Amino acid sequence: MACADSDLDLETIPLIALNVTVRKKLGLYLNPKNAVAADWTAVAEAMDFSYLEIKNYEATKNPTTMVLVDWQARATDATVGKLLSILTKVERNDIVEDLQSLILEDVRRYCERQKKKADPPLQVPEVDSCVPRTPERNGITLEDDPEGTPELFDAFICYCQSDFHFVHEMIREL
Known about the structure:
Layout: H1 20-30, H2 40-46, H3 51-57, H4 63-74, H5 80-89, H6 93-118, H7 164-173
Helix pairs in contact: 1-4, 1-6, 5-6
């Protein structure tokens, strides 16, 4: 299982598990043109984007984010593990090391959300909290109550703004 407590198989965790913080930091590492290290274009090429697609991404404000979004939408193997292997393939081990803790935290949160979705809350078939367990349910009139104490009732009023005057009049009467 991808989200087992003992070990996480990042190859089965979808890319959607990565939250905004990790994606922004990936952009901070990959967006600047760098003569020494691979940038977002090398990552996009490793993700099998064509030359024309890569040239079109150059016009966007954050090409790394756009590449991740489009890769996630079109590739069936767009997983966290695959992204990490692509970063390693383009020799950006610095990114993998720097963002590893953030990525694992996002994956852990994703797995928790998936587990909550898989385990819906238990619903008791009978709800007994709606029946009051106080003595006012024993009698409905003064003669029904052996002590002769008056019955107490709670009321809830739903009204619209145009009935506001009538509601105040009713409250005074009750």
